[in-house]
């Protein structure tokens, strides 16, 4: 009986070793792939010498059974880690960690695309917003969001509890700031919203931004040492003006007076990712106007977003620069999805475009106020896009891949994966002690 148990135990041990070897190889492949995507060196695992035995003789069968059970538990832990992967490289970088609250700043290592170097307030301290009020735009009180964002030092801004913040004037941010809404239900709404002007290294994550309105003709503080007169604002959700290294991720945006996210006046190094946008007309403007040539250096990545119900146009509308539109889900538009003027380079890769039922609105693209004899030279391409319900993309330009080198910022996943890649777009539900 003892010999039979020994044979069975050894067979089980061999099976577990085989399974664990497969799991380890899969984990190694996953880590290398993820590292390549994020531009970081892979962790190399030590390999056995070919002559080294895979297992050692164990004389005690009971000991074998104990080792088998430990191996099963270890394999389960490894496979649980692997099962967290969604294929979305941003989310897979941090969402697998149930202790995200203690590791909040890890998020800054997970950016991709042209805004991948945005660090926000990673090198600073935490600032906890405890007061949703906006008492005074010139003399903000400590504990308010306005007081946090104007400071000169790097800050990682978090929220003590759920809150709706109705601002009196634009929220003018200073450099090296992260607004991190994870763990609370935070809305910036029903007033002027966020302005990112002539600053750098900003991360905005996990915030509901909606019903934004113009304000101005008022004094507003933008740093501890300075405040000044502001004219009437446009009523954007997020206004990026002459700024760089900006990342807007996992926000839910809707129903603003002008744009949901606009980037103009020489802004560059921007990633707009994992956002859920609904119920809005002019969704996203990238480029100030046709005559503002400094925008020729603009580079923006638009990735893993869900453009949803009630949207009309500009997803995005581009001018002059280089734009990588990749792995987004377009389920609604009334006029068009992607448009532009002034010779922008648009690289559309592996998006899913579901055209509206209106037979006159099935074209994805629109060239604004330009004759075909001119726009036929612009570099606009569709590569691997999934076109549904009669959707079609009108390409232009040379078609040479070298023309798109400055409009390429990450590797596209296949378009049939877009539903899963964007399935968690918008604000996530994050609770302490569990994955977001």
Structural description of this entry:
This protein has 436 residues and is an alpha/beta fold. It is 18% helix and 28% strand. It has helices at residues 2-38, 61-83, 89-94, 145-149, 372-375, 418-421; strands spanning 125-129, 155-159, 163-165, 171-172, 177-180, 186-189, 194-197, 200-205, 208-210, 218-223, 226-230, 238-241, 244-249, 252-254, 261-264, 268-273, 276-278, 280-282, 284-286, 299-303, 306-307, 311-313, 317-319, 322-326, 329-330, 338-341, 345-349, 352-354, 365-367, 380-383, 386-388. A ten-stranded parallel sheet has the order 1-2-5-8-13-16-20-24-27-30. A nine-stranded parallel sheet has the order 3-6-9-14-17-21-25-28-31, with no helix packed on it. Strands 4-7-12-15-19-23-26-29 form an eight-stranded parallel sheet. Helix 4 (145-149) links the parallel strand 1 (125-129) and strand 2 (155-159). It is globular. Mean pLDDT is 86; it is low at 1-83.
- Largest pleated sheet: 10 strands, parallel
> Beta-sheet strand percentage?
25-35%
Which strand order spans the largest sheet, edge to edge or round the barrel? 1-2-5-8-13-16-20-24-27-30
Strand tally is 31
Number of helices: 6
Query: Taking Cα atoms only, what radius of gyration do you get, to the nearest Å?
Result: 25 Å
Morphology call = globular
Low-confidence stretches: 1-83
């Amino acid at each position: 009986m003892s010999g039979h148990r020994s044979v069975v135990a050894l067979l089980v041990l061999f099976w577990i070793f085989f399974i664990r070897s497969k799991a380890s190889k899969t984990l190694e492949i996953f880590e290398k792939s993820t590292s390549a995507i994020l531009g970081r060196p892979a962790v190399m695992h030590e390999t056995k010498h070919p002559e080294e035995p895979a297992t050692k003789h164990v004389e005690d069968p009971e000991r074998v059974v104990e080792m088998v059970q430990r191996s099963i538990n270890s394999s389960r832990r490894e496979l649980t880690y692997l099962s967290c992967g969604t294929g979305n490289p941003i989310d897979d970088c941090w969402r697998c960690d149930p202790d995200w609250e203690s590791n909040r700043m890890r998020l800054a290592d997970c950016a991709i695309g042209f805004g991948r170097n945005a660090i926000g307030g990673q090198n600073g301290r935490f600032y906890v917003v405890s007061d949703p009020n906006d008492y005074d735009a010139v003399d903000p009180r400590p504990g308010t969001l306005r007081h946090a964002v104007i400071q000169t030092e790097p800050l990682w801004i978090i929220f003590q509890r759920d809150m709706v913040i109705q601002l009196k004037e634009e929220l003018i941010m200073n450099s090296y700031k992260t607004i991190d809404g994870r763990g609370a239900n935070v809305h910036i709404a029903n007033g002027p919203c966020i302005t990112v002007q002539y600053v750098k290294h900003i991360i905005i994550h996990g915030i509901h931004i909606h019903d934004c309105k113009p304000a101005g003709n008022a004094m507003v503080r933008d740093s501890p040492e300075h405040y000044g007169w502001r004219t009437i604002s446009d009523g954007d959700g997020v206004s990026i003006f002459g700024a760089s290294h900006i990342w807007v991720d996992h926000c839910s945006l809707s129903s603003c007076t002008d744009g949901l996210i606009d980037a103009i006046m020489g802004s560059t190094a921007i990633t707009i990712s994992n956002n859920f946008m609904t119920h809005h007309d002019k969704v996203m403007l990238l480029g100030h106007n046709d005559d503002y040539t400094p925008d020729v250096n603009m580079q923006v990545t638009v990735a893993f977003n869900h453009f949803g119900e009630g949207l009309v146009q500009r997803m995005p509308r581009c001018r002059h620069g280089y734009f990588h539109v990749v792995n987004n889900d377009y389920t609604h538009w009334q006029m068009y999805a992607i448009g532009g003027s002034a010779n922008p380079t648009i690289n559309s890769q592996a998006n899913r475009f579901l055209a509206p039922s209106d037979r006159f609105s099935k074209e994805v693209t629109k060239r604004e106020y330009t004759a075909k004899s001119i726009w036929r030279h612009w570099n606009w391409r569709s590569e691997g896009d999934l076109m549904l319900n009669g959707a079609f993309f009108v390409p232009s330009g040379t078609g040479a891949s070298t023309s798109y080198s400055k409009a390429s910022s990450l590797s596209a996943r296949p378009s049939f994966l877009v539903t899963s890649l964007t399935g968690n777009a918008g604000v996530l539900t994050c609770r302490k002690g569990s994955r977001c």
